[in-house]
């Protein structure tokens, strides 16, 4: 999760988020180089007193400053396209989780396991424990196994919501009447916090998501306990 003064991206907990961070840094580097170059040129114009009364055209330089930016854009466009398709690739998921957005909470279904289903509400500030995170903790967490491919199906019951976990690089809209799909792979244990990110009404800010990533054998224990009850 994000902590104090963290204005950048959160540490990644999945290979896809790692790639997203690499791409962000790559694009930022190109952006900084362009900004510095253009800034330098614009600044230097103030001190430029060269005048050429007979200059009517400069075919060569115009060719260069048209084609060069286009090539630079390719260095952003191609990795971006690669990431786009990488994010959409479903790779033999071992668990499927269905999450349904409601005004204003999430509900979850583990369709592979006897259709376990539960609601996940934010814990109100006045009921929060001393080590809880305000506006971020929920009563029922999503338990998921680490080191496994997980497919997530997202939909909504009333208006558009968005199931978003920054550390995993996941952001899928839940739209009424549609079923959206994505996948991720959590590569470490821990708690991963997320929030709805479609403006979905008065309590939009108060429908957080908490994923508890555990080793596979713990997940099997948890799931079998819940299937029996
Ligand atoms: Cu649901 Cu914003």
TrEMBL record:
Species assigned in the record: Drosophila prosaltans
Transmembrane segments: 27-51, 63-87
Listed GO MF terms: copper ion binding; cytochrome-c oxidase activity; oxidoreductase activity
Pfam families per the UniProt record, alphabetical: COX2, COX2_TM
Subunit and partners: Component of the cytochrome c oxidase (complex IV, CIV), a multisubunit enzyme composed of a catalytic core of 3 subunits and several supernumerary subunits. The complex exists as a monomer or a dimer and forms supercomplexes (SCs) in the inner mitochondrial membrane with ubiquinol-cytochrome c oxidoreductase (cytochrome b-c1 complex, complex III, CIII).
Stretches assigned to the Cytochrome oxidase subunit II copper A binding domain: 92-225
One GO cellular component term noted in the UniProt record for this chain: mitochondrial inner membrane
Residue ranges of every copy of the Cytochrome oxidase subunit II transmembrane region profile domain listed in the record: 1-91
Location relative to the cell: Mitochondrion inner membrane
Family annotation (InterPro entries): CcO_II, CcO_II-like_C, CcO_II_C, Copper_CuA, Cupredoxin, Cyt_c_oxidase_su2, Cyt_c_oxidase_su2_TM_dom, Cyt_c_oxidase_su2_TM_sf
Function: Component of the cytochrome c oxidase, the last enzyme in the mitochondrial electron transport chain which drives oxidative phosphorylation. The respiratory chain contains 3 multisubunit complexes succinate dehydrogenase (complex II, CII), ubiquinol-cytochrome c oxidoreductase (cytochrome b-c1 complex, complex III, CIII) and cytochrome c oxidase (complex IV, CIV), that cooperate to transfer electrons derived from NADH and succinate to molecular oxygen, creating an electrochemical gradient over the inner membrane that drives transmembrane transport and the ATP synthase.
Principal place of residence: mitochondrion
Family according to the record: Belongs to the cytochrome c oxidase subunit 2 family.
Gene Ontology biological process terms, A to Z: ATP synthesis coupled electron transport
Protein topology in the membrane: Multi-pass membrane protein
Obligatory cofactor(s): Cu cation
Record-given protein name: Cytochrome c oxidase subunit 2
Enzymatic reactions: 4 Fe(II)-[cytochrome c] + O2 + 8 H(+)(in) = 4 Fe(III)-[cytochrome c] + 2 H2O + 4 H(+)(out)
Keywords: Copper, Electron transport, Magnesium, Membrane, Metal-binding, Mitochondrion, Mitochondrion inner membrane, Respiratory chain, Translocase, Transmembrane, Transmembrane helix, Transport
Gene3D superfamilies noted in UniProt: 1.10.287.90, Cupredoxins - blue copper proteins (2.60.40.420)
Annotated cofactor note: Binds a copper A center.
């Amino acid at each position: 999760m994000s902590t104090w003064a963290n204005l950048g991206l959160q540490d990644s907990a999945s290979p896809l988020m790692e790639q997203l961070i690499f791409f962000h840094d790559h694009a930022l580097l190109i952006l900084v180089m362009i900004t510095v170059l253009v800034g330098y040129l614009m600044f230097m114009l103030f001190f430029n007193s060269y005048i050429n009364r007979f200059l009517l055209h400069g075919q060569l330089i115009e060719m260069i400053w048209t084609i060069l930016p286009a090539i630079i854009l390719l260095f952003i466009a191609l990795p971006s396209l690669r990431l786009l398709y990488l994010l959409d690739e479903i790779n033999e998921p071992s668990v499927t989780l269905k999450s349904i957005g409601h005004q204003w909470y999430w509900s979850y279904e583990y369709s592979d396991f006897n259709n376990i289903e539960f609601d996940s509400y934010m814990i109100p500030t006045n009921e929060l424990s001393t080590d809880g995170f305000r506006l971020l903790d929920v009563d029922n967490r999503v338990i998921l196994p680490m080191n496994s491919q997980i497919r997530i199906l997202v939909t909504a019951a009333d208006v558009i919501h968005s199931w978003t976990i920054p550390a995993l690089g996941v952001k899928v809209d839940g739209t009424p009447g549609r079923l959206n799909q994505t996948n991720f792979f959590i590569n470490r244990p821990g708690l991963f916090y997320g929030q709805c990110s479609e403006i979905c009404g008065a309590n939009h800010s108060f429908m957080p998501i908490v994923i508890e990533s555990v080793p596979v054998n713990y997940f099997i224990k948890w799931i079998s306990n819940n299937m029996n009850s």
